[in-house]
Amino acid sequence: MIIIVVGVAALIIAGVLVYYFLSFQKNDIHRRLAELNLDTPVESVTTVAIHKLLDDSQQRSLARRLNEAGWYTMTPVKMMGFMLVGTGCGAGLGILLGIALGKLDVQTISIFIVLTVCGFMFPNAMIDRAIAARKRSVQRELPNLLDMISTSVEAGTALSQALNIGLDAVSGPLKEELNLVNDDIRLGRSRQEALAAMAHRVREPDLTTCVTAIVQAEKLGGNVAEVLYSLSGEARERRTLRAEEIAAALPVKMVFPMALFMLPALVMIIFGSVAAQYFK
Questions:
Q1: How far apart are CA 9 and CA 14, in angstroms?
Q2: DSSP 189
Q3: Phi and psi dihedrals of 218, rounded to 5?
């Protein structure tokens, strides 16, 4: 009876936390005012309690990962809340599974611990997956952007206008980041600072190299079109090398599916008739 009450309580607490963190959304005005330190919103007791679980270094690290994933509306405190919600859901599921099994032994306790840890780590796994997908998309779209910008600059277009033209040649996260660059420029940031901020948010090596080369070429008065053209060629070569690396790793990855699915079928086909005749 006590186990049932604890399981139900854990599920209720997890549901309340999910409702709280899904419903608690700041609007853009409050968020921008908080970033400019012009407004200090009143935090709830739950938010303050979760905030105390993270020190400054952990908050900076989690904020950097959220920026890499493109989750700009998600704060470290809110993400920690989702981790706690996942922990509660995993613990509740472990308790319910123990109730269903009807016993309390080492195996049941191990399952409970594993589900609890998995519930806590699930949001982190989602962040890592979003970061990897975002960087792959940037790597795939970057050569097209550089080709379009270099062609536009060679035709006599200014670099700022060439960036706007390059928006039509890309899609996905890279296009979103370029829109943020344009927004920063309209808000008064210089083009170099806006591009550097984009590279700092995404933290993709190819994009960081391209931004650094463009900024240095502008500062030193170099030929930006030639720099962009060479960067485009290097980006395409790196993309080809990555594709070849993935293709070379496929035979190794295919060993386990073949051994698991194809070999039993082959054994059944070869020895099935023999076994049928023998038992007949």
A1: 9
A2: -
A3: -70, -40
Taking only the tens place, the pLDDT of each residue in 206-221 is 889 888 888 888 888 7
pLDDT tens for residues 126-146?
A: 999 999 999 989 988 888 888
Helix (H) or strand (E) holding 82: helix 76-101
Report the alpha-carbon distance of residue 122 to residue 128 in Å, rounded: 10
Please give the helix or strand (H or E) that residue 122 lies within, else none.
Answer: helix 106-154
3-state secondary structure 19-67: HHHHHCCCCHHHHHHHHCCCCCCCCCHHHHHHHCCCCHHHHHHHHHHHH
| Contact yes or no for 143/236 (Cβ under 8 A) | yes
164, 195 in Cβ contact below 8 A?
Answer: no
pLDDT tens-digit series, residues 42-75 = 444 445 555 566 777 888 888 888 888 888 888 8
What is the model's pLDDT at position 129?
A: 93
Q: How far apart are CA 80 and CA 86, in angstroms?
A: 10
DSSP state of 258: I
Q: How far is CA 172 from the centre of its chain?
A: 13
The helix (run of H) or strand (run of E) holding residue 148 is: helix 106-154
C-alpha distances out from residue 191 to 161, 170, 186, 187, Å: 12, 19, 10, 11
